[in-house]
Amino acid sequence: MTGIPDQLHRAFFKTFSLLAPGVQGALLRRYFDWWHRRPDPWSLATDSSEHHKYLATLDQVSAGAYPRMLEVGCSEGVFTELLAQAHPAAEITGIDISGRALERARRRTERYRSRVRFARADILEHEEHARFDLVFCAETLYYLGRHDRLRRASARLRSLTAPSGVLVLVHPWPEAELLHGFTDSDQTFSKISERVEANVVRPFAVSVYRNNQAALETGPSSMSSGWTS
């Protein structure tokens, strides 16, 4: 989807945020299971622009070891598979609201089953207590609608990112300015990089943040060390 149809698609889901979070989540689960009645409904595995976005996202992440990774909104596991290939030592968790999508994600990543797992979860309600060294959240936040839901999602992403860990947000541009704004204003995070591709079929932004919680807790002297790859 591009242009006006894409905008109408996202505007439609904003109306769901007028409902209570639990009701909103239940409707989204039913919708996305219906949407995934056929494989790869967004052509994520075959669309060249999606592949370009995936590679741009991976390219923005500084080289290094990330033992535990989380992908929020993993759908059918196309990007999860790329992550597993790019980081052969990492344990990866993918969450999505659609059980049907997750069934296909498990089949797609079968060869990595010893270190890739999936869970059906809503980012607003997810009760995962683990913290991750690298967290991805792509093409997900605009489904949440109202600012209070975006603020809540930002806080949840913060709680899932380990101290000194990295959070990567990927959303359509210029809408990403709003969707990433709550993380931009969160003093726990510092933005390390941002890549905006405005002259492509589906403009997007990749924003990368570091969780500075450990430095904040130990005082200003720790903050001076900055980002290291």
From TrEMBL:
The keyword Transferase applies. The keyword Protein transport does not apply. One of its GO terms (molecular function) is S-adenosylmethionine-dependent methyltransferase activity. Keywords: Methyltransferase, S-adenosyl-L-methionine, Transferase. GO terms for biological process: methylation; oligosaccharide biosynthetic process. InterPro entries: SAM-dependent_MTases_sf (IPR029063), SAM-MeTfrase_NodS-like (IPR008715). Pfam families: NodS. PANTHER family: METHYLTRANSFERASE, UBIQUINONE BIOSYNTHESIS O-METHYLTRANSFERASE, MITOCHONDRIAL. This is Methyltransferase domain-containing protein. It comes from Acrocarpospora macrocephala.
